[in-house]
Specification:
Blueprint lengths: L7 E2 L1 H18 L4 E5 L4 H20 L5 E6 L7 H14 L3 E3 L3 H6 L11 H22 L3 E3 L4 H7 L20 H10 L4 H4 L13 H5 L3 H12 L4 H5 L2 H18 L7 H21 L9 E2 L2
Helix pairs in contact: 1-2, 2-3, 2-7, 6-10, 6-13
Amino acid sequence: MQRIKLPQMNCITVGREIGNFVIESVLENNATGCVIGLSGGVDSSTSAALIKTAFNRYGKTHKAHLSLVGYILPSNMNNEKDIVDAQFVADYLDIPYEVLNIEKLVRAFKLTNPEAFENSYDQGNLTSRIRANVLSTKAATEKKILAGTGNKDEDFGIGYYTLFGDGAVHISPIAGLSKRLVREMALFSGLPGHIARRTPTAGLEPGQSDYKDLGYEYDIVELITEGLKQGLTADQLAVHDQVVEPVKRQIAEYQESFGVKKFETVTEVVEDILHRHMTAGSKMKIIHPPAPVITLFYD
């Protein structure tokens, strides 16, 4: 069976391509820069690093100054470490920022949407939409555009984001990068290892992590979606030697970590990813922020 090839990149080239895209988007909108939500995770941190680098480069050859402002928007669902890491990144990159607790905003929706508080899933998505409203309003009042922080695996791979929440942005700078490549770009950009390797979490439920929700890591998402793009069928992917071993290992690790199995077989994992991949396509038809064209290569 054919080998599944994963994309590679030259970080200098792709970093400049993303930076140029952001600068062009800002200038096209007659904006003064970008607003970004900082979570302390690798996606928002890498996005911020790339934008900050681009704006610094632009400022060396132009009189106009483009600025990046970060907002950290915790609720009671967030771990204190989320705030600490987000502040660390802002200070590390020398980005002005504010910490605005949105818990009172979230609770205010009990007046109009009490049903959203009946389960953590709906409350989490409500919280994401509130964050998006705060960020987009900050962007509007500061004459900036809102930079999204979703990566390729989340947005295009399995649609793991909230429609009209963290998906509601002006631009998606890292939409062409898988989680694997985001981590690579993070380290290239000088971000510390504890940020680059931080466990992905949406910060929408207590103790939540993407792995706990999904039952597999993003490297599996990339492998399956790339295999699909390269012409392999679901049945072929479920028995592919590049897929079987890591999926079985993650099934076992999940049971060891959480005391239950999320999936029983490799086939179930493949089917779940492909189902989510179809959902991602449907969501993209509703909201599809522009993303940069970047140079990736396969070998």
